[in-house]
Amino acid sequence: xxxxxxxxxxxxxxxxxxxxxxxxxxxxxxxxxxxxxxxxxxxxxxxxxxxxxxxxxxxxxxxxxxxxxxxxxxxxxxxxxxxxxxxxxxxxxxxxxxxxxxxxxxxxxxxxxxxxxxxxxxxxxxxxxxxxxxxxxxxxxxxxxxxxxxxxxxxxxxxxxxxxxxxxxxxxxxxxxxxxxxxxxxxxxxxxxxxxxxxxxxxxxxxxxxxxxxxxxxxxxxxxxxxxxxxxxxxxxxxxxxxxxxxxxxxxxxxxxxxxxxxxxxxxxxxxxxxxxxxxxxxxxxxxxxxxxxxxxxxxxxxxxxxxxxxxxxxxxxxxxxxxxxxxxxxxxxxxxxxxxxxxxxxxxxxxxxxxxxxxxxxxxxxxxxxxxxxxxxxxxxxxxxxxxxxxxxxxxxxxxxxxxxxxxxxxxxxxxxxxxxxxxxxxxxxxxxxxxxxxxxxxxxxxxxxxxxxxxxxxxxxxxxxxxxxxxxxxxxxxxxxxxxxxxxxxxxxxxxxxx
Length: 501
Hints:
Blueprint: H1 2-10, H2 14-28, E1 57-62, E2 71-77, E3 83-89, E4 101-104, E5 106-112, E6 115-124, E7 132-140, H3 147-152, H4 155-159, E8 160-162, E9 166-169, E10 182-187, H5 194-208, E11 214-217, H6 228-238, H7 241-244, E12 247-249, E13 256-258, H8 260-263, E14 274-276, H9 280-283, E15 299-303, E16 306-310, H10 317-329, E17 335-339, H11 354-366, E18 371-374, E19 380-383, H12 386-391, E20 398-399, E21 405-407, E22 414-417, E23 440-444, E24 449-455, E25 459-466, E26 471-479, E27 485-489
Parallel strand pairs: 10-11, 11-12, 16-17, 17-18, 18-22
Antiparallel strand pairs: 1-2, 2-6, 3-4, 3-7, 5-6, 7-8, 7-9, 10-24, 13-14, 15-16, 19-22, 19-23, 20-21, 21-27, 24-25, 25-26, 26-27
Helix pairs in contact: 5-6, 10-11
């Protein structure tokens, strides 16, 4: 029998022989069959669910109002101008549906490079703090069901195409203290090959912190802000967890894109200015509490004793400064965390943002901001408390028995630059002889990272993890009753040698 099979294989046509040869190379050679030349942008941006239907998809939850008593949801559908949503307190069995409350959604058209769709949004108000809810969203059908199907379903399903029921938990009510720990995942730029490379990282972060309070994206979620298939890839990566975990985001420079559709046919790119992606205000439901003229690209959210402030570092830095000072000055919360795309201190070559240091940084120091989370540089860098770091006072820390390196006094915010996607840049060189040049204590290149941050009443714990879930960096900030911080550097070991820096 084996002899007969061998004769048959030898007589196969050339195409079959190619398959056999392929298998040998794939499993027996060090060089890959496909000959990868680079880690990113080697793939076509595939249309991932580009065609909208009546069934809601790309569902995203966020906060437009008070996180303790409300949350907001956006989704898209093909053409129906009528959208609704239902919500009820979640129960162990299915009878919660009898207690569901109906909310009317808002609808607007979004013209994309792949055609027009309807964007829908709804805000659920008057909810109970700290409560687990089940919700679903629906879009009116543009294609009627058959008579048989209409008779077999409830009227709501005959009229509307629905999502699944999705769980969402409201935050605890707080007057400024951390009434319950806040845990969130922060990521830098996803941007390139999002479906191929970013999906594994964002899903690993959920495996790491499944009970997280929210996710935070520090800009450059996609490479081209008006390219619909790239947003399809982003939603493919986040999948159902974007509908269940609140998403906060600020725009990066790649969310500013040329609006070729609004410009019309025949207009060359050079004559089309880059503006904030058309979909930003329709996709994300963030608080309308930014400076005049902002469109949910600048905002703040108070969550269980933590104030999260999002800035747009792409434009009008000076114009945001007065608003920022008011938000920092009138802040009842125990902890303050800021995010913007461009770093105060750059970690990669040929990058620097002195305007941000000359404007916003002084306010961070004045109002004792605890942590600043950034992106843009496609590498990793993390400072100590910046005043102590640049004065090199952290070099005189006491080495305690646990091996922790501790700073005994407050010294300004800790700055982080991180990247979650596959596009990587080389690290910036900081001359050893320049005493105040290197702001970073921990750095990395060619490493995809996500960060899990836990904020308690008197302690902030920061962990940076690789895409495989391995701990790369860690520190803790302890805050005393007067608001003074004590910083403990708990990085496992230096990952970049002095000569690399």
